[in-house]
């Protein structure tokens, strides 16, 4: 059973979830349970991939950890502090492009600093450094609509890094990109992650992405989302996607997911019918 | 460089003989556009002239363009309505005919512009405040929703009761005609702002006020400017109605006088003038839109490839 106070353990974990659940529209006729009984610890600097069928609530968990939504059961801590709202320590990167089109690239990257009222010289310096880390120094004064989809997501990563977050929360950030760009972005993300030392929680429904990135893969069940299994990945990086170990891991994850995808599919059909 | 085809306006097809003149592509495009506009108006006028030539269009009722545009100095005489209503003023006094035209156009255009500015500022401000303060929404929104379907014409007596005669009632009419729709439109734009934008600001620690000023307002501006442009023609219509019922002087007054004195030439001359002014003001507003909303891609012509 989930413990109610932090004193029950003494971890230094970046994120601790105990018995976390979320019911949308609770108390109404449209209420539905998205998450149930999530227990999850994420170590500092760890790369955790949340894998599950569409609509299983893994994105919801990310929003709860980000503090953008409140859980309806359980507790969440980040570095010993209970999560009670959004914090610059926990940056969320979205699936869709979320750059402000009316700002230039550097203004987007330093948006968080401008919220705090930092002077322009400092904002420019921070933006320059963050953009250098994602390899987009020359795009400082461009506007988002002048960039390709992959570049825009790199700017979004730079914007998150500019806040010097301890936890990077990524909600299918590369889902809208083509396969080749996505592979490049995965390599890029691993570099950034290694440099920054932040923990990463990465939501995806792509098994290949999990194989390429994760220290640990958390497999979710279909709705309501629960943790089905947590699979540690010890393959050395850079990983060869065609190595036998990668193949074995891919097969294992496929097996784990198979039943859940079938269930999610059946449930969606039932919803559509009824 | 924009890569998505849908975001880029399809340029009019290049005209071969223009291409040989060595003009820049931009200039060539606008020349081609102008050419088509002239051709379109010319076609309309040509049909009218043809109907006149074969005797179907009675020149006493539907004088063709060469008649009502033929004697501009004569038409301009009628625009000096500014002081007509004052007793003891010699109609020959006052500004010259051309000055009178300019004054009339200036007066009407000023009313449209001031009305638009007031309506835009008021409605965006109030729309944002309504979404910001829940109490204000409950107190104000039902009334605004109730009043928005009322035709601006119905407000005309109110305008005269409150403001009498002059600029104020005409401007009031423009504001009333636009205000309610634009408040509702502002609110619906706010509700449509991408959740991701707002969540980004929230994760960066923005306060509610910062979210409104730094994210929501810039995010809704493009759509609001489009709404403003759509309502521009409405503003021109309302101002004419306000002027024609004796609220003041201006183009509407001229049209009304032309009706009362049975002068179809003057009616069509004024209509032509109003059309030209409406077109020019739309073009101006589009320029403003391009300047202020530099980040919005032009979407005209998306369907042209079909």
TrEMBL record, chain A:
This is ABC transporter ATP-binding protein. Pfam families: ABC_tran (PF00005). GO terms for molecular function: ATP binding; ATP hydrolysis activity. SMART domains: AAA. PROSITE patterns: ABC_TRANSPORTER_1, ABC_TRANSPORTER_2. CDD domains: ABC_NrtD_SsuB_transporters (cd03293). Residues 15-247 form the ABC transporter domain. PANTHER family: ALIPHATIC SULFONATES IMPORT ATP-BINDING PROTEIN SSUB (PTHR42788:SF13), TAURINE IMPORT ATP-BINDING PROTEIN-RELATED (PTHR42788). Belongs to the ABC transporter superfamily. Coiled coil: none annotated. Keywords: ATP-binding, Nucleotide-binding, Transport. It comes from Roseicella frigidaeris. The keyword ATP-binding applies. The keyword DNA-binding does not apply.
TrEMBL record, chain B:
It is a multi-pass membrane protein. It is found in: Cell membrane. Its main location: membrane. Residues 105-289 form the ABC transmembrane type-1 domain. It comes from the Bacteria. Belongs to the binding-protein-dependent transport system permease family. This is ABC transporter permease. It comes from Roseicella frigidaeris.
